[in-house]
């Protein structure tokens, strides 16, 4: 499982707070998702981050 942040991101930062192992903010203030497989121990947090995104910008990459 990997995630992808699409162009809808408004840079609220919620995903990076909910699951910093997978999501971080870039220099433009927008979220990016790790290109690595999501570790099993943070899968739930990553899913919550996806569900909590106010604009639905977090997609499953595979
Ligand atoms: S929660 Fe959604 S809108 Fe907010 S920073 Fe993450 S991807 Fe962007």
From TrEMBL:
GO molecular function, one term: electron transfer activity
Keywords: Electron transport, Iron, Iron-sulfur, Metal-binding, Transport
One Pfam match: Fer4_15
Domain annotation 4Fe-4S ferredoxin-type: ranges: 1-28
Coiled coil region boundaries: none
Protein name: Ferredoxin
Species name: Anaerotignum propionicum DSM 1682
Record PROSITE patterns: 4FE4S_FER_1 (PS00198), 4FE4S_FER_2 (PS51379)
Keyword DNA repair appears in the UniProt entry: no
Purpose: Ferredoxins are iron-sulfur proteins that transfer electrons in a wide variety of metabolic reactions.
Top-level taxon in the UniProt lineage: Bacteria
């Amino acid at each position: 499982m990997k995630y992808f942040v699409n162009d809808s991101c408004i840079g609220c930062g919620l995903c990076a707070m909910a699951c910093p192992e997978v999501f971080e903010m870039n220099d433009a203030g927008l979220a990016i998702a790790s290109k690595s497989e999501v570790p099993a121990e943070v899968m739930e947090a990553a899913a919550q981050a996806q569900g909590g995104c106010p604009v639905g910008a977090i997609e499953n990459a595979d």
